[in-house]
Amino acid sequence: MSATAHHLLEIRRYYINFLLKLFAFGQKKVERKRVGKDQDDSETSFSEFDQPSLSFEQPRALGIDEDNKGFHMDHVLEYVTAGMASIMEDNVTKYFEPEELPMWNLLSRTNDRAYEFVSARLTVCWMVGFVVRYALLFPIRLIILTLGIPLFWLCMIIVGVFPNGQFKRWLNRKLVIFCFDFIAGSLSLVATFHNTENAPKRGIAVANHTSPIDSVVLATHNYYDMVGQKHSGLMGIFMRALSHASTHIWFERSDEKDRSSVVERLKERVNSPDLPPILIFPEGVCVNNTSVMQFKKGTFEIASVIHPIAIRFDARFGDAFWWQDKFHHYILHMMTSWAIVCNVWYLPPMTRYPEESAIAFANRVKAKIARQGGMIDLSWDGFLKAQPPKKEWLRQQQQEFARHLQVDNTEEEDQWSTKDKDE
């Protein structure tokens, strides 16, 4: 199953096609079991289009007409409704949970209905699949990963010996693609690249972010210098190895000085024709591959030309989304899946308009990536999953609400003055 064995590509395709037939067989059994139970299992939920909503970008006073002056108790009701709806069906955190599949993929961890016990034949298929994944595929993948890591280190050290120049860049590109392609075999990666004529050769490339292996997927086809948060453990091993061969940019997100130095280094490199393209994930967090969240504007302030890349994983074969607390749990989860299958689209480079702001440019690139990958385009900041909303966002909503409640006291004072004179 090694990704380096390109002559076995057709075998991997046959393997994927076989799995699709197996999933279809299992789905038929599951659907028969579901007949008659759909009505019992139906639940009522808020519709995202019917419920009142609040937006940080365009604050508005819910339940208050534009011409309204004065406060009425019923003005708060839509705020209460919006709050309750957000609690029942959160529009942010649901995109940080594993994707729900339209069909069962014979992985018991992806469902809570014990589909493996629907029928005797389906139970046998699930048991055989369990043995194949854990007793056959997992040991082979573990061997590939164990061999791939020292091979990667050795190749990067060899590249680091050579002086900077055209030969070193050529050798680095060849070895990085080869090594990542080899290591991708530990995940049984099957990646399909579309519109390769748009693959970036320099400048800044941005992509949506699902997992740490996004970089691995892209590096099996093209070479990039990478920008990212410093990590320890297995990810730290790869980062240190990459630093031997090229000028990747690693930073500590919590250190403001470190972040500002990254901006300066990017400005120095962005227009260099002799350096490889820089790969950045502007979301800053991993999203479950059903949506694309807010892009940070920093990248789009630096460069006027951006190379967008859309990545969409097929969760039927294995979920590449990183939702586990421990990275080794995440690696084990993928290495015991059927395979990691994805599509990658290289989009034409996009240029910032003369009067366009960095935020507008970021949103335009994000919308393009979401549309190409068939994902939902969201304006939410992905860091809301772990951090409270910014104070200025809350203040905007409060100011908008207060603006509609300003009472014209002039008429009221005149009425009281007239009343006093009459008395």
Automatic annotation (TrEMBL):
Residues 404-423 are annotated as: Disordered. It holds the Pfam family Acyltransferase. Pathway: Lipid metabolism; Phospholipid metabolism. It is found in: Membrane. The chain crosses the membrane at residues 118-136, 142-163, 175-194. One of its GO terms (cellular component) is endoplasmic reticulum. GO terms for biological process: phospholipid biosynthetic process; triglyceride biosynthetic process. The keyword Phosphoprotein does not apply. Residues 203-314 form the Phospholipid/glycerol acyltransferase domain. Keywords: Acyltransferase, Lipid biosynthesis, Lipid metabolism, Membrane, Phospholipid biosynthesis, Phospholipid metabolism, Transferase, Transmembrane, Transmembrane helix. It comes from the Eukaryota. GO terms for molecular function: glycerol-3-phosphate O-acyltransferase activity. InterPro entries: LPCAT1-like (IPR045252), Plipid/glycerol_acylTrfase (IPR002123). Belongs to the 1-acyl-sn-glycerol-3-phosphate acyltransferase family. PANTHER family: GLYCEROL-3-PHOSPHATE ACYLTRANSFERASE 4, ISOFORM D-RELATED (PTHR23063:SF2), PHOSPHOLIPID ACYLTRANSFERASE (PTHR23063). This is Phospholipid/glycerol acyltransferase domain-containing protein. It comes from Petrolisthes manimaculis.
